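Q: Could you fold this chain for me?
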Amino acid sequence: LQITGLIFGGVGMLGTLAATAMPQWRVSAHVDANLVVFESIWEGLWMDCISQLGVRLQCKLYDSVLALPPPLEALRALMCLAVLLAIVAFLLAIVGVKYSQPSKEGPQAVSTFIVAAGVAFLLTGSLALVPVSWTGGGIIRDFYDPAVPVPLKRELGAALYVGWASSALLLAAGAMYC
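A: Sure. Below is the predicted structure, expressed as structure tokens.
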């Protein structure tokens, strides 16, 4: 159970890191009269990208941190915090598994690391779930809003699916350790 939790937590940690770095949080939607299908626009936490026919990819980092909208700043902060906490949880889990054999520290030290890793994984999974779900909800709301022009409509990007899967793995790892 500990090894399975460690694997789930490690994969969840890597997925959280990948979701944070990926530019595909919001992807241009090809609906109605939007005939520009050879070009896709990706919007991420750190940059915007334009993909032309899946061959040419041009990305541009956001120019200024101060010019970012407050929701994007919050999403960045939450995902960075989730990545750091996932790393700490994974390290705690490694220490807990390493010392799970009988030792001179006794069972109290072992259970402390195991419970700390479980709580950290649960907190990390919940923390990563918030920005991903917040973004997904906003995309769906704007997609069905008739006031939003068609060229500005976006779809759920791959980073959101990676984030949801990572959150599920982190929550499962935390449940196993607890």
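A (continued): The mean pLDDT is 88.
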